[in-house]
Specification:
Length: about 250
């Protein structure tokens, strides 16, 4: 079976499973009607379960059923994180992107994470720093510095998501990144990147040059982790992803 055909079969299986679940939740003649309406509204089973409890209630599901569906992303996220193990090596942007995609499964509000890494790039801890709303999450420099000290991190990556699918960093995103780079000069734990999750896609402020590469490298010229962060990153592929999102 070809890759495209296999992906289509997986999508169809997911749709059939979601239809069956919705029909079970809404028994009687309304079940198939509710299933068809919700799948039309959200376009896919994944988008439906990521809509969140309150949105699903507004679409006519009971509170219990909406809560049950909204719990699925948490379960999936936990299961996927188990594949990485407790301390995966995230020594490059490509590796960090794969890990962060899992961290943001089902996130419909903005959340801010810090990846605390040891000197080889192994994850010490993924720290949930802040939760915001659909538009923004606050950025507190002192909290980041405190977590670096607490975890004894030798390098960090910061990440947040854009639930509204805006495929561009804001002015504040860039400014907080440059402010953090400056603040870390005295600590000896360089900032490797600021990654923004847009749906399933990732936007690297470092990779796309929103902060000049020289600023990143000047933090610790002798740090191999910092110098080789972009080694296996697919810039052209990431650019195509962002261009597609911008056209939507």
């Amino acid at each position: 079976m070809s890759g495209a055909r296999e992906r289509m079969e997986r999508v169809n299986r997911a749709k059939r499973a979601m239809e069956a679940a919705l029909e079970f939740m809404c028994p009687g003649q309304t079940g198939p009607e509710v299933a068809a309406r919700l799948l039309r509204r959200y376009g896919s089973p994944g988008a439906l379960i990521e809509a969140g409890k309150h949105q699903l209630m507004r679409q006519g599901l009971s509170e219990n059923n909406a809560l049950l569906l909204s719990m699925i992303p948490d379960i999936v996220r936990h299961m996927e994180q188990q594949h990485f193990g407790p301390h995966p090596r995230l020594a490059t942007l490509n590796a960090a992107e794969k890990y962060l995609r899992v961290c943001y499964i089902g996130m419909n509000v903005e959340r801010f994470f810090l990846l605390a890494l040891d000197k080889s790039g192994k994850l010490i801890e993924c720290v949930h720093m802040q939760t915001g709303n659909e538009d923004s999450a606050p950025f507190y420099l002192k909290n980041i510095l405190a977590e670096i000290v607490r975890t004894d991190a030798k390098a960090i990556v910061i990440a947040h998501n854009h639930p509204n699918l805006t495929p561009m960093p804001s002015v504040a995103d860039v400014e907080c990144t440059t402010a953090l780079i400056s603040a870390l000069n005295s600590i000896g734990a360089p900032l490797l990147d600021h990654v923004i999750m847009v749906g399933r896609h990732t936007l690297s402020l470092r990779g796309f040059g929103y902060v000049p590469e020289a600023r990143w490298r000047q933090q610790a010229p002798e740090n191999g982790l910092l110098q080789h962060w972009l080694a296996d990153w697919d810039e052209a592929g990431s650019l195509r992803e962002m261009e597609k999102l911008a056209k939507k």
